[in-house]
């Protein structure tokens, strides 16, 4: 690298800084607006104040998030529920239990659908032709 190259690079860097300074002074970009636009600055301050208020409420244990952060018993219960759900989903994915088998065993699923369909047809036929299935009048008393 020669002194001329260094001088050119330094000159370009200074031009970039001048351009950036001009943009800031004219209120361009977020930082420029912050420096020049009082309404924007107040809005930003209000947002920061609101954020601080929310964080303070959470730290005091207020609201759902606050309780979750400060109430260890609630956290432990939610953690336990989450662990049980993870176990349940793993068992279902492995085909354990009736529901797990229905999820994994296509033939069982199809058989259950067939039985359900046939049962619905039978019930409809009983409602339509009760004497076919109950020829004698049934009396409890």
Characterization of the model:
Helix 2 (29-36) packs across helix 3 (38-59). The longest helix has 23 residues, at 3-25. 0% of the residues are buried. The chain is 84% helix and 0% strand. The protein has a domain at 22-69. It has 141 residues and is mostly helical.
Range of helix content: over 70%
**Count of β-strands:** 0
What percentage of the residues does DSSP assign to strands (E)? under 5%
Biggest β-sheet strands, sense, barrel? none
| Class based on secondary structure composition and strand pairing | mainly alpha
Task: Count up the helices.
Answer: 8
* Residue runs with pLDDT of under 50 for 5 or more positions: none
Mean pLDDT: 88
What general outline do the C-alpha atoms trace? elongated
Rg estimate, integer Å: 37 Å
The run of helices and strands is HHHHHHHH
Head-to-tail CA distance between termini:
113 Å
What are the defining features of this structure?
8 helices, 141 residues, elongated, 84% helix, mainly alpha
Brief rundown of the structure:
The chain is mostly helical.
